[in-house]
Amino acid sequence: MFVEAAARLNVQVKLLDVGDTAPAKQINYLPGPDGKSQHIDGSFADPEKIRQLASQVDVLTIEIEHVDATQLQKVLDDKLVDAVHPLPSTIALIQDKYLQKVHLASKGLPLAEYVAVGPVDMSKATDAAQARSAQVESVAKIGAEFGFPLMLKSRTQAYDGKGNYVVRSADEAAAAVAALGDGKRGLYAEKWAPFEREVAVMVVRSATGEVRAYPAVETVHKNSICHTVFAPLRTADPGVEARARKIAEQAVATFGGAGVFGVEMFLMPNGELLINEIAPRPHNSGHYTIEAADTSQYENHVRAILGLPLGSTALKVPSAAMINILGLADSDKDNEAVAKTLVPAVVSLDVPGTTCHLYGKAGCRKGRKIGHITIVGQSDAQVRSRLHVIEEALDKATELAEKGGRLPSELTLPGVVALNASSAASSSTSQTQKGSSPKSAADFSHPQPLVGIIMGSDSDLPVMMAAAEILKKFDVPFELTIVSAHRTPDRMRTYARSAPARGLRAIIAGAGGAAHLPGMVAAQTALPVIGVPVKGSTLDGVDSLHSIVQMPRGIPVATVAINNSTNAALLAIRILAAADPTYLDKMQRYMEEMENEVNGKIERLAHDAWDYTLKK
Amino acid sequence: MFVEAAARLNVQVKLLDVGDTAPAKQINYLPGPDGKSQHIDGSFADPEKIRQLASQVDVLTIEIEHVDATQLQKVLDDKLVDAVHPLPSTIALIQDKYLQKVHLASKGLPLAEYVAVGPVDMSKATDAAQARSAQVESVAKIGAEFGFPLMLKSRTQAYDGKGNYVVRSADEAAAAVAALGDGKRGLYAEKWAPFEREVAVMVVRSATGEVRAYPAVETVHKNSICHTVFAPLRTADPGVEARARKIAEQAVATFGGAGVFGVEMFLMPNGELLINEIAPRPHNSGHYTIEAADTSQYENHVRAILGLPLGSTALKVPSAAMINILGLADSDKDNEAVAKTLVPAVVSLDVPGTTCHLYGKAGCRKGRKIGHITIVGQSDAQVRSRLHVIEEALDKATELAEKGGRLPSELTLPGVVALNASSAASSSTSQTQKGSSPKSAADFSHPQPLVGIIMGSDSDLPVMMAAAEILKKFDVPFELTIVSAHRTPDRMRTYARSAPARGLRAIIAGAGGAAHLPGMVAAQTALPVIGVPVKGSTLDGVDSLHSIVQMPRGIPVATVAINNSTNAALLAIRILAAADPTYLDKMQRYMEEMENEVNGKIERLAHDAWDYTLKK
Q1: How far apart are CA A190 and CA B383, in angstroms?
Q2: Is the pLDDT score of B132 beyond 90?
Q3: Quick one: pLDDT band at residue A25, thresholds 50, 70, 90?
Q4: Residues of A in contact with B438 (CB under 8 A)
Q5: Would you tell me which residues 54-113 of chain B have a C-beta closer than 8 angstroms to some C-beta of chain A?
Q6: What is the pLDDT of residue A448?
Q7: Residue A325: is its pLDDT beyond 70?
Q8: What is the number of other CB atoms lying within 10 angstroms of the CB of residue B126?
Q9: Distance (Å, rounded) from C-alpha A496 to C-alpha A481?
Q10: What residue in A sits closest to B9 (Cα-Cα)?
Q11: Do residue B551 and residue A560 have CB atoms under 8 angstroms apart?
């Protein structure tokens, strides 16, 4: 993905990786005079290979941090390259997660409490058995202080949950140390952080220290491996997204060198954000940016390391998600198992707004990231329903992979194993699940609502239900609840202020008499608020109408006719239609139907006028 | 771009093109056992090379139609490949633009009048001089019938304006024939089509005949070469976009084989659409789909030819544009001229929402397409203002290239010639025009308005001007005009019905007394309509308010307070804010400012209450 971004800017990339057909090499042919590829065949941990690469390029960068940072510093000192990005010192600092924490803490950034375990400098521990028992003793002591469970971590070479151990009691200390290097690796411990959700922010940093954060996203892990990512982050607390971006920018600003960095955080129940760890490179949580942001994380990495202007990090679509494709096969030779691994890819081809990225990796052993799928859409609800189709198929494939059953034909393309030309082309018609469509987005109190219907009292419900029915008819995800301006002012404040951060796009508020709810909600949100004057027992609803419509300059309420919550819902849909052609089409069809219905009545009236009212 | 799309689906591509470093080969390393690339070095017109390629792949497709179609048919007949897409017969038909017209006309598709020139079958014309004079005579005769100017075209090998000749009088017939092959090529003539605009539609076709059109776009040509593309197409006539898509789908449905097709059309002043020509491959007018559509034209081409499900052709962003980067250099060795060619690319790096695609072509001689830039944004106005920055720089570079002046430093990256790593990396700070920003989008009657302010009479202007001022303050592109329900009902109908197709997202309508304008506009558009009750000389505006707000079920008007057009504009901005975070932020800041302003008054009142009203 980095190579693609570089190629679009005519930037030549020379790669160091094992073999001729490493994924990045497949899409980057750099022929020498002999017609052979000039990429370097070797390990990114091999100092000699790093030196060889450095002598042939102008700028060196990394896509994985487990490299030989000492050698990177050396080639820089020896002036074999103009620059290494990020700085070798940054890479070294980040490689050691304990030192990373010490560094971030020294800059005042928020972290879960942490402490080194046993002998801090493992290079001086000559006797592994001695080091092991010192570590075990230390873990027990830290547990007594931090409490259990305790998160024990390797300081180095840890990723995707590897190198982490949850110690549930002092009794488990020895087993934990044994599992994490058995006295041969440095460890540290973190106080258990019972987070509510995980949040990540990609930040691009120029060599001169300019930082630009992408939107904060929610990451969902399964078995410690990133499973899905949702952008942008939605929270009831309206400040979280901006706080996460700010913390991430502050953290990345403390490092040296250019490039993109992934900052992973915990969102605690009290709204606090704690940095978990930082990756000095393009990150899985930023893959969605290829389809969903103005500039992808990869292009911004290219720009940053070359001193080109940083690109806009704004989302260009309203909502996006990413799901990883992980290997399900124990053997790469097992076609059936490979086909199961590819189920999400195959199914995604029939889901609108999806882009499937297969990396061209040689195998797909269990848990290996062999690709990902990005899903974009006009709303969270649409993205979730599209994702749902893929996740359902994935669950089925995973279950079959575990239990050993055969894949049903609707989850494969006939003859397709690796989605390659030779096998796919022979099937002239696709057999993927044409029939199945993402489940309907609209239901009562949808988890990703676009419209909120609120009313001052349940006595308004008979009037307001018509709005709910219209939204359901148009498949608009909505929520419906009671918010009283006079009886629950705090709830009203929270509801109004959190509305945009929760993803709402319009609020319909019904109220009667001294009808304050619509105006007071409008005063506390920047979203459009639609007011429905509910007719009370006196004054025919004129009191409600005037209370709602006669708002002071500065705070508008979109007022509809007395008791006409139908029109409030139709107005909410028109507001969605302003930016979403699908709803525009639906509204146009609805208006045509109304016209046809009246035309039908005209017809009946012409033929049947004398007893029209009776029959009706 | 095709190779990128294929790589994402793990589809192996083997290429036939001249040299080792043809653009597509650069991003596709297909090593054989000897480590050398397995692509084929040769011309796509060479029958032997086509045969060689066919024997090594499963499916053959093309990226340019000037191939040896006879040989393609032969390799298919000889079963060297499973499929050729589109069918060789389709390619042959399209290669000959005259036969293409005959075919389309036979299917009832709309075309400008056309007729063959001179001897139709050039293969039988053995004497070039004789053929030439027959052609000249024929052109003069056709001119007498069709009138001048007359469009004379080569039947084959014509693209980017090459092979076209505008014959202004019978006297020019000989010169025109001489310019177009001098009696050695078949010609045809078209009646002059004084089109209003040019329209293009990409259509993807499956092998089984399913067709899916992308949105219709406007294409702008300069010197017969595509200069810019705008998506979606905006027209005052609301039906044009759908008609263009339908004609394109019908046309592509008549061809055999799978793949994407580009359908170029003329939009005539009377609203008629005439097909100009069709390309049987991914097309320049569809490049915008890479960043702006659910599925790019390239991925859909890959899917179509492999029998995979076709991808969604919907736009995922509200607005997009594309501008080509054409060579300005006469010599590839002239660094200064190369730098001028790259000016649009360099400048685009500082413009949000842009993606620059450089193709890695070896040279950049004058007029050669060496890349393109896609621009996406939340509105046409935003996209145009972003494009404006690039076009201004391009105009400057073009002028300098023609007159020979040196490029000012703000249009280059220091030391950068080919945007390659070696030179760019040495400049740690960018010198591109940081200071210049796209010109403000909001002005009176903006050419790409998002909001329309209309009123029944100029007597409403004093009330409605406040709305214009608010929209200007928030940088919202708008238009302001008079539309009277009672005095100009036809104008009102046209205004309301054309609003979505012209790109409007909300309409503010002010009216007094028996105020019918807002409701009647709402009855004829699916967009949100905001009604401002204007206070007349009697009844204090209650007549206007009730006329506007008490709409029947089915047609809502978002009514604001009497005379309060400020709130109407603020509501329109909230409607935009529902889908655009930039406007949401602006509205939130506006509300904070209001709060601060009142806080200031509270302060003054506390210290200065006795003469507060006097001072105020």
Answers
A1: 48
A2: no
A3: confident
A4: none
A5: 57-59, 82-83
A6: 92
A7: yes
A8: 7
A9: 13
A10: A358
A11: yes
Domains B197-408 and B451-579 share a fold: no
As a whole number of angstroms, the distance between CA A345 and CA A394 comes to: 9
pLDDT of the residue at B417:
45
For residues A90 and A349, what is the distance between their CA atoms, to the nearest angstrom? 40
Q: Give buried/exposed letters for B23-56 (b at 16+ CB in 10 A, else e).
A: bbbbbbbbbeeeeebebbebebebeebbbebbee
The first and second tokens of residue B40, run together, are 């084929």
CB pairs under 8 A between A and B: 329
The phi, psi pair for A495, rounded to 5°, reads: -60, -50
B residues 303-362 closer than 8 Å to A (CB): 303, 305-309, 311-312, 314-318, 345, 349-350, 352-358, 360
Nearest-CA distance B314 → chain A (Å) = 8
Evaluate whether the domain defined by A1-93 bears CATH number 3.30.390.80: no
> Could you say which DSSP state residue A265 is in?
E
Report which secondary-structure segment, H or E, holds B511.
Answer: strand B506-512
Residues of B (511-530) whose Cβ lies below 8 Å from A = 523, 526-530
Please say whether the structural domain A197-408 has been given the CATH code 3.30.470.20: yes
Angle at B534 between CA B531 and CA B535, to 5 degrees: 145
* Tokens matching residue A68: 């030989």
Q: Is the pLDDT of residue B269 over 60?
A: yes
Contacts of A421 in chain B (CB under 8 A): 11-13, 57-59, 306
- Would the CB atoms of B526 and A587 count as touching at under 8 Å? yes
Q: Which residues pair with B154 in a beta bridge?
A: B187
Asked if the C-beta of B436 comes within 8 angstroms of chain A's C-beta atoms, the answer is: no
pLDDT-based confidence at residue A372 (cuts at 50, 70, 90): very high
**CA–CA separation, B1 and B544 (whole Å):** 58
HSE toward the beta carbon, residue B484, CA cutoff 13 A: 10
Whether the pLDDT of residue B428 is over 70: the answer is no
Higher-pLDDT residue of B433, B169: B169
CATH of domain B113-191: 3.30.1490.20
When comparing pLDDT for A134 and A611, which is higher?
A: A134
Across A279-291, average pLDDT: 97
Beta bridge partners of B191: B150
Question: Spelled out in words, what is the top-level CATH class assigned to the domain B451-579?
Answer: alpha beta
Per residue in A480-508, pLDDT (tens digit) is: 999 999 899 999 999 999 999 999 999 99
Residue boundaries of the structural domains of chain A = 1-93, 113-191, 197-408, 451-579, 588-615
Cβ <8 Å between A357 and B8? yes
Supply the pLDDT for residue A438. 38
- Residue A120 has a pLDDT of 65
3-class secondary structure, A266: strand
